[in-house]
Amino acid sequence: MDLPILQEQELEQDFEFFELMGFPLCSPFRLLKEDPPAHHTAAEIPRLKGKTILTYGYLVSLKNSKSASGKAIAFAMFHDIHGEIIDTVHFTSSLVRYPFSGTGIYCLKGRVVEEFDFYCVEVFYMKKQSYIRDPRFSD
Fold it and tell me: Which of 23, 107, 109, 111 has the fewest other C-beta atoms within 10 Å?
Protein backbone atom coordinates (compact mmCIF):
# COMPACT_ATOMS: atom_id res chain seq x y z
CA MET A 1 0.00 0.00 0.00
CA ASP A 2 1.41 3.36 -1.06
CA LEU A 3 0.98 6.31 1.24
CA PRO A 4 -0.09 9.56 -0.38
CA ILE A 5 2.46 12.35 -0.66
CA LEU A 6 1.32 15.19 1.53
CA GLN A 7 1.78 18.69 0.23
CA GLU A 8 2.59 21.41 2.73
CA GLN A 9 2.84 25.03 1.75
CA GLU A 10 5.60 27.19 3.19
CA LEU A 11 3.03 29.49 4.82
CA GLU A 12 1.43 26.52 6.60
CA GLN A 13 4.82 25.65 8.05
CA ASP A 14 5.40 29.27 9.11
CA PHE A 15 2.11 29.34 11.03
CA GLU A 16 2.82 25.94 12.57
CA PHE A 17 6.15 27.14 13.97
CA PHE A 18 4.49 30.36 15.14
CA GLU A 19 1.85 28.35 17.01
CA LEU A 20 4.36 25.90 18.54
CA MET A 21 7.05 28.36 19.61
CA GLY A 22 5.13 31.60 20.09
CA PHE A 23 7.11 33.40 17.40
CA PRO A 24 7.64 32.83 13.68
CA LEU A 25 10.90 31.51 12.24
CA CYS A 26 10.30 33.60 9.12
CA SER A 27 10.04 37.38 9.15
CA PRO A 28 6.75 38.23 10.88
CA PHE A 29 6.30 40.96 8.26
CA ARG A 30 5.81 38.16 5.71
CA LEU A 31 2.60 37.19 7.51
CA LEU A 32 0.95 40.63 7.45
CA LYS A 33 -2.44 40.94 5.80
CA GLU A 34 -1.32 44.17 4.10
CA ASP A 35 2.20 45.37 3.33
CA PRO A 36 3.08 48.39 5.44
CA PRO A 37 3.10 51.68 3.51
CA ALA A 38 6.31 53.72 3.24
CA HIS A 39 7.76 54.14 6.72
CA HIS A 40 11.00 54.83 8.55
CA THR A 41 13.34 52.05 9.66
CA ALA A 42 15.65 51.79 12.67
CA ALA A 43 18.68 52.82 10.60
CA GLU A 44 17.04 56.17 9.80
CA ILE A 45 16.10 57.09 13.37
CA PRO A 46 19.35 58.82 14.47
CA ARG A 47 19.11 61.43 11.71
CA LEU A 48 15.44 62.16 12.51
CA LYS A 49 15.95 63.51 16.05
CA GLY A 50 13.07 65.80 17.02
CA LYS A 51 10.94 64.71 14.06
CA THR A 52 7.64 62.83 14.10
CA ILE A 53 7.96 59.49 12.32
CA LEU A 54 5.82 56.55 11.26
CA THR A 55 7.38 53.11 11.63
CA TYR A 56 6.37 49.46 11.93
CA GLY A 57 7.87 46.99 14.37
CA TYR A 58 7.47 43.48 15.72
CA LEU A 59 7.15 43.59 19.52
CA VAL A 60 10.08 41.75 21.10
CA SER A 61 10.15 43.02 24.68
CA LEU A 62 7.88 45.08 26.93
CA LYS A 63 8.64 46.52 30.37
CA ASN A 64 5.76 48.13 32.26
CA SER A 65 6.82 50.56 34.95
CA LYS A 66 5.75 53.68 36.85
CA SER A 67 7.02 57.24 36.55
CA ALA A 68 8.37 59.19 39.54
CA SER A 69 4.82 60.51 40.06
CA GLY A 70 3.39 56.96 40.05
CA LYS A 71 1.83 57.06 36.57
CA ALA A 72 2.02 54.11 34.16
CA ILE A 73 4.86 54.13 31.64
CA ALA A 74 6.17 51.40 29.33
CA PHE A 75 9.41 50.74 27.51
CA ALA A 76 9.30 48.47 24.48
CA MET A 77 11.72 47.04 21.97
CA PHE A 78 10.62 46.26 18.42
CA HIS A 79 12.35 44.73 15.40
CA ASP A 80 11.83 46.67 12.18
CA ILE A 81 11.31 45.05 8.77
CA HIS A 82 15.11 44.48 8.51
CA GLY A 83 15.42 42.95 11.99
CA GLU A 84 17.03 46.08 13.46
CA ILE A 85 16.03 47.36 16.91
CA ILE A 86 13.63 50.24 17.56
CA ASP A 87 13.36 51.31 21.20
CA THR A 88 10.21 53.09 22.32
CA VAL A 89 8.79 54.80 25.37
CA HIS A 90 5.03 54.99 26.01
CA PHE A 91 3.77 57.53 28.53
CA THR A 92 0.45 57.28 30.38
CA SER A 93 -1.64 59.26 27.88
CA SER A 94 -0.46 57.01 25.04
CA LEU A 95 -0.86 53.77 27.03
CA VAL A 96 -4.44 54.60 27.99
CA ARG A 97 -5.47 55.38 24.41
CA TYR A 98 -3.35 52.73 22.69
CA PRO A 99 -2.63 49.77 25.02
CA PHE A 100 -0.46 46.85 23.99
CA SER A 101 -2.43 43.78 22.93
CA GLY A 102 0.13 41.00 22.85
CA THR A 103 2.92 40.08 20.54
CA GLY A 104 2.71 41.12 16.91
CA ILE A 105 3.51 43.93 14.51
CA TYR A 106 2.49 47.44 15.46
CA CYS A 107 2.22 50.65 13.49
CA LEU A 108 3.97 53.28 15.63
CA LYS A 109 3.84 57.04 15.32
CA GLY A 110 5.94 59.20 17.58
CA ARG A 111 8.74 61.69 18.05
CA VAL A 112 12.40 60.67 17.92
CA VAL A 113 14.21 61.66 21.11
CA GLU A 114 17.84 61.24 22.13
CA GLU A 115 19.50 61.24 25.51
CA PHE A 116 23.13 60.26 26.17
CA ASP A 117 23.50 59.11 22.52
CA PHE A 118 20.54 56.72 22.96
CA TYR A 119 17.70 57.18 20.45
CA CYS A 120 14.14 56.10 21.00
CA VAL A 121 10.66 56.90 19.75
CA GLU A 122 8.27 58.60 22.17
CA VAL A 123 5.08 56.94 20.91
CA PHE A 124 1.79 58.83 20.79
CA TYR A 125 -0.11 56.50 18.40
CA MET A 126 0.03 52.71 18.09
CA LYS A 127 -2.08 50.11 16.30
CA LYS A 128 -1.56 46.36 16.09
CA GLN A 129 -1.56 45.05 12.53
CA SER A 130 -3.49 42.01 11.29
CA TYR A 131 -1.90 38.83 10.00
CA ILE A 132 -3.16 36.91 6.99
CA ARG A 133 -5.55 34.06 7.63
CA ASP A 134 -3.80 30.85 8.67
CA PRO A 135 -3.86 28.67 5.50
CA ARG A 136 -4.19 25.50 7.61
CA PHE A 137 -7.72 26.57 8.51
CA SER A 138 -8.74 28.20 5.23
CA ASP A 139 -11.31 26.73 2.89
Answer: 23
